[in-house]
Amino acid sequence: MDNQRLILFVALAIVTLLLWDAWRGDTTAPPPSQVSGLPVDSGPPAPDAGATVPAADAGSVPAVPPSPVPEVTRKSLKKGKRIRVVTDRLVAEIDTLGGDVRIVDLPDYPVSPDQPDKPVRLLNDAPSKLHVAQSGLISASGAPDHHTLYDVPQTHYELAPGQDRLTVPLRWTDGKGLTVTKTYTFTRDRYVIDLKHTVHNATTSPWEGRSYRQLQRIKTERASKLLYTYTGGVISTDDDNYRKISFDDMAQTNLDKDTKGGWLAMIQHYFVAAWLLNQGESDHLYSKALSGDRFVLGAISSPLTVASGSEGEFSSRLFVGPKLQHRLEAAAPNLDLTVDYGWLTFISKPLFLLMEGIHYLVGNWGVSIIVLTFLVKLLFYIPSRASYRSMAKMRKLQPKFVQLKERYGEDRQRLGQAMMELYKKEKVNPLGGCLPILIQIPVFIALYWVLLESIELRQAPFALWIQDLSVKDPYYVLPLLMGATMFIQQKLNPPPPDPLQAKILMALPFIFTLFFAFFPAGLVLYWVSNNTLSIAQQWYVMRELDAVNVKTG
Questions:
Q1: Pairing between strand 156-158 and 82-86?
Q2: Average pLDDT in the 348-357 region?
Q3: What is the Cα–Cα distance from 168 to 154, expressed in whole angstroms?
Q4: What average pLDDT score do residues 498-512 get?
Q5: Apex CA 100: angle with CA 123 and CA 316, to 5°?
Q6: How far is CA 116 from CA 93, 113, 119, 253, in A?
Q7: Cα–Cα distance list, 479 to 15, 16, 450 (Å)
């Protein structure tokens, strides 16, 4: 394999892998079972026919599906009063109808640098952007679900200086002795909201019921056609740390799975909303496709019996916030996997931790990318050096290759034999320049995902005109520099004898420039840094070899 074929092969391999990742669909198979009613398993029984079961079209725990009803517009959720909760990390709105968490704004994360006072709205009950967290109880004896109207003592809560917690109670009673208090607890410097349903049974009969927690979300279009980032459902169970349940999966079949502990989530680029299940507690996971491109992913608990004259409690936690890995790790096991580095997570995670450590020292994510690129090049210095030495030797043999081609013409067999004899005579390994570079490709792809998925780079400034490493270079300077450095790399090698190869290689810098023009500036900065260091290393190795040849020759 000559130098030019090597460059062509590696370039096309990288582009192919990036494109495959960008356009791949969901990587998990649909759940194996199809259910039409409330999940039934060998464990806890389902509520009996007399239970108050929420209507299916409103995003409830799955009941027997009604006849399909055509729908041409997206429905708005019904509303009651709003309870506004303000903490240092969240601004939330809870609706008294169902006690749903309808809106969550993230003040630390503006929509854009140009709109610093407009926060990202992660949960939203606007019909076109529907994404809400719902919960409730199911019981044959009566219980409040997410269609029930609660009473509240006040409609505004705000975390005061020196205050660490806000408790938001909602109360429901059936007027016959059964009272349920639904309590949200917000904590300073946390994206986790604690939820408790406390059942006070003052009736003369025992009460039995279950709790459910679910996320309802509308299917949205991908934000970028070039860069693939997954938006949809994810679950983590006792036998599967991370499994995607895409909107298409939910449309095809209902999820039907038991677990002890774990979590369920709706994720998007940079942000996640997740119900965190209690470790060791049995839950049944379900999903359902609703009308208007709406989808529900939820969990229903094991039954709880509350004796007459006593009280019982269901508890859960809701994470609503950015994909900051340390916070995700602290919130629940495997929740950090929602920072989706794909099949190279085992490489991407250490690279991110290294880049994070560099940022701690230098205080600039752009500089951190450059330093990380340098360290990766340093790690592969020896195999890269061997690769460039092999390239230099192949370059020296290029005139002899041309002579052999002229001598044997179209006789491929004799030409191949002659070239192998030449390799043997000159002690050159034709694969010497290929293999060292091939082993680096997984690291390049892993770093690509680190730079694409890490929220730390979102709206992070670098220098001069680059004020957001997560979006494209507004003046396309970095893509042009990347194309120029790629062109220089090619010029360090002689043109290939094959005219077709020569044309393809000449076109690659232009193709890559166009391809990377719409990539986030952080990714392009990495490629520019990598190309520049490669040019410097290749020039140094070739100069070193030339000096040796002069000395010995």
A1: parallel
A2: 91
A3: 9
A4: 75
A5: 95
A6: 21, 6, 7, 42
A7: 15, 19, 19
The distance from CA 451 to its chain's CA centroid, rounded to whole angstroms, is 12
Q: 317 near 193, Cβ under 8 Å?
A: yes
Q: Which residue has the tokens 């995003």?
A: 59
What pLDDT is recorded for position 47?
35
Query: Do the Cβ atoms of 523 and 516 come closer than 8 Å?
Result: yes
Closest CA to 194 of 312, 275, 85: 275
Cβ–Cβ contacts within 10 Å for residue 119, how many? Answer: 17
Q: Which amino acid is at 78?
A: K
**At 537, phi and psi to the nearest 5?**
-70, -45
Query: Can you tell me the distance from the alpha carbon of 87 to that of 163, in angstroms, rounded to the nearest whole number?
Result: 10
56 contact partners, CB below 8 Å, separation of at least 6: 62, 63, 64, 65, 66, 288, 290
d(CA 195, CA 85): 14
Rounded CA-CA distance 10/25 in Å is 24
Contacts of 58 (CB under 8 A, 6+ apart): 77, 146, 147
Residue pair 553/508 in contact by the 8 Å Cβ criterion: no
**Strands (DSSP E) found in 140-255:** 156-158, 165-173, 178-187, 192-201, 207-218, 232-237, 240-245
Tell me if 408 sits within 8 A of 414, measured CB to CB: yes
Q: Centre a 10 Å sphere on the Cβ of residue 18 and count the other Cβ atoms it contains.
A: 22
Rounded distance, CA 241 to CA 263, Å? 10
Residue 189 backbone class (left: φ over 0; alpha: ψ -120 to 50; beta: rest): left
Q: For the segment 19-78, what is each residue's pLDDT rounded down to a tens digit?
A: 444 444 333 333 333 333 333 333 333 333 333 334 434 444 444 333 333 333 456 789
Strands 131-138, 207-218: pairing kind: antiparallel
Residue with tokens 């070039």: 226
For residue 448, the model assigns a pLDDT of 81
Give the Cα separation of 513 and 217 in Å (integer): 37
Tokens of 32: 């194996």
Residue 171 has, within 13 A of its CA and on its CB side, a CA count of 10
DSSP, residue by residue, 425-454: HHT--TTTTTHHHHTTHHHHHHHHHHHHH-
**CA-to-CA dists, residue 132 to 92, 129, 284, 412, angstroms:** 11, 10, 20, 66
- Residue found under tokens 């996320």: 215
Please give the single-letter amino acid code of residue 57.
D
Question: In a 10 Å sphere around its CB, with 0-12 CB exposed, 13-18 middle and 19+ buried, how is residue 65 labelled?
Answer: middle
Alpha carbons 252 and 398: distance in angstroms, whole number? 58
- pLDDT single digits (tens) 281-301: 999 999 999 988 999 999 999
* Nearest of 141, 159, 9, 149 to residue 86 by alpha carbon: 159
Q: What are phi and psi of 529, to 5 degrees?
A: -65, -45
What is the distance of C-alpha 384 from the center of its chain?
Answer: 32
Q: Which two tokens stand for residue 161?
A: 């200086």
Interior angle at CA 452, CA 110 and CA 344, nearest 5? 140
